[in-house]
Amino acid sequence: MTKIDLDELVENLMQCRRCGICRDAVYEDKGFDGVCPVWKSSAGFETNFMRGRIQVALALLDGTLEKTAENAEALFTCTLCGNCTEICAAEFDPAECLEKVRAVMRDIPNEVRDTITERVMHYDNPYDDNKHLKRDWVKEVGFEIPAKGEILYFTGCTSSMRLPNVAVSTARILKAAHIDFAVLENESCCGSVMLRTGMTVEAERNARKLVESIRSSGAKKILVTCAGCLKTLREDYPKLGFNLPETLHVTEELQAIVRGRKLKLNSLGKGLRITYHDPCHLSGKLSIYDEPREIIMAIPEIELVEMQTTRETAMCCGAGGGLRSYDPELSKKIAADRVRSAEHVKADMIATSCPFCEHNLKAGAELTRSTIRIVDVVELLAESIE
After folding, report:
1. Which of 3, 40, 47, 234 is the most exposed place for a label (fewest CB within 10 A)?
2. CA–CA separation, 184 vs 154, rounded Å?
3. pTM above 0.85, yes or no
4. Backbone Cα Rg of the chain
């Protein structure tokens, strides 16, 4: 495991110029209009955006502030979406630094973080004591799925246990495209939530178990539907010293299938206006923007409309970085704001490529009593081939 250099971390945090553009800057060239989704949907205190969080982090690190749950609250009311990183004029990555601060400060009490970690370590998921429920969705697809194969569909906890239609739709599309695939018999959580909340020791232990399961499956390629799982498996695991087979988001695989016209796509309704929400974990270094949009536009008679902030400047859905668990009400308010952005461009539907985003955006729509439909891209595609 990569050891965090505390002196280097402090030096990076000190790069903050305290200019405050990470709060509410307008950056016309990139489409920014209100950079921090937490600040926008909260009381607007200094500690509700990155400039203030950095000052809290430095004070905790040098002992100026006592290490209490109350004093450390600002460290955990952040989605780690990275909008501050995109616009920061200083030469450091604020979001990545905050993630490291959480790891360094893991001795500070945090009941929510610790409970999630305990559940993942004991039950292989953060949701339910019965770990075997993760494969229940397979019963709905109508055909057998083996536990071993060269292409492995890593379902993820949210797709399998909260939004099983995402998993079912993915399986049916792969079947229709004549792609043989497997699903692990006992799939562990990828550990994304533990990495984001600073529980790196447990995350590494969990990763070791999952990597062994993947190797035993004979997989030469891994497909995932969850943006958080993709970032974890493709970007974080190598940093932990684990090398996996080629790992792709399912939209990266399906882009070629759609281009090759290997699926007959039917209209879902003439003039249907769909806007696409970019998941934070697919942004940044992964830069997966065009693939899901191309899939959406391949469906006949759909009009793709863009919200004010998109791609690397897209506003977060509010679910990431552990915020959905730590402060669910704030998380839902952020989602509601994103829903309003979609309604502003008169979209009939929000499509995304992350079940965690879909889950929270639905909560945001419920909060605003919006009738807008929220789906995953794979659900749209599956509907168009039925």
Report:
1. 3
2. 7
3. yes
4. 20
DSSP-assigned letter for residue 33: E
Closest CA to 385 of 172, 178, 179: 172
Three-state secondary structure of 101-153: HHHHCCCCCCHHHHHHHHHHHHHCCCCCCCHHHHHHHHHHCCCCCCCCCCEEE
Ordered by where they begin, the domains of the chain are 6-104 (no CATH), 111-255 (3.40.50), 263-385 (3.40.50.1860)
Name the CA dihedral angle for 185, 119, 375, 234, rounded to a multiple of 10 degrees: -70
What lies within 8 Å, CB to CB, of 106 at 6+ separation is 198, 199, 200
DSSP 8-state symbol, 234: I
Alpha-carbon torsion 357, 362, 366, 369, what sign? positive
CB 335 within 8 A of CB 303: no
Are 184 and 152 in contact by the 8 Å Cβ rule? The answer is yes
Whole-number Å distance between alpha carbons of 121 and 230: 20
* Contact between residue 287 and residue 197 where contact means Cβ atoms under 8 Å apart: no
> 10-residue block means of pLDDT along the chain (386 residues)?
87 94 74 80 92 97 96 96 90 94 95 96 94 92 96 97 97 96 96 96 96 97 97 96 96 93 91 96 92 96 94 92 96 97 97 97 97 97 91
Is residue 50 within 8 Å of 98, Cβ to Cβ? yes
CB-count burial class (<10 Å; 0-12, 13-18, 19+) for 27:
middle
**DSSP-derived 3-state class of residue 44:** coil
Report phi then psi at 375, rounded to 5. Answer: -140, 165
User: Which single residue is written with the structure tokens 């292409």?
Assistant: 151
Per-residue pLDDT tens over the stretch 170-198:
999 999 999 999 999 999 999 999 999 99
DSSP H helical ranges for the chain: 6-13, 21-24, 37-40, 50-61, 73-76, 83-87, 94-104, 111-123, 157-161, 164-176, 192-196, 200-216, 227-231, 237-239, 250-259, 290-298, 323-326, 328-344, 355-368, 377-385
Task: Report the 10 Å Cβ neighbour count for 147.
Answer: 16
Taking CB atoms within 8 Å and a gap of at least 24, the contacts of 294-298 are: 294/255, 294/258, 294/259, 295/251, 295/254, 295/255, 295/258, 295/377, 295/380, 295/381, 296/351, 296/377, 296/380, 298/258, 298/265
